[in-house]
Write a structure and sequence with these properties.
- This protein has one domain.
- Helix content is 56%, strand content 0%.
- Helix 1 crosses helix 4 and helix 5 packs across helix 6.
- The radius of gyration is 22 Å and the shape is extended.
- The relative contact order is 0.10.
Length: 137
Amino acid sequence: METLPRLRGESRHHIEYRHIIDWLVRKPGAFANYRYRSDLFPGSRFRIAYDALHGRHTSRSADKEYLKILHLAARENESAVDNAIRQLIDHDKMITFEAISEIATTGVSVNVPAEVTIPDVDISVYDRLLSVLGVAS
């Protein structure tokens, strides 16, 4: 069962890319002028990948490459594809369908990001500051 958001007002829409991706892959030229194209970026990394592809290819071939990536996300696992794009961006690797497919389908990790630890904040510093300023009660 699918739950869809309730859209109120005029000119509101919700396009699920999984429902139309097969059609778009067969007709990639339709993607360039698709009215709801902004809905075909499931996350910000997908948009970054699309922009990176446009930086290296002609519009038509970049659209084809992006639609293959989106098709992979629809058929395999969107979060795995998103993670693959993240890994390629983090390591300044070229974003291609082949690289994303290899990482997403095999589970091969480029490198796991370093774990970051943040020390606890000593709140007593603020108490001392307030007492010096004469604000503390």
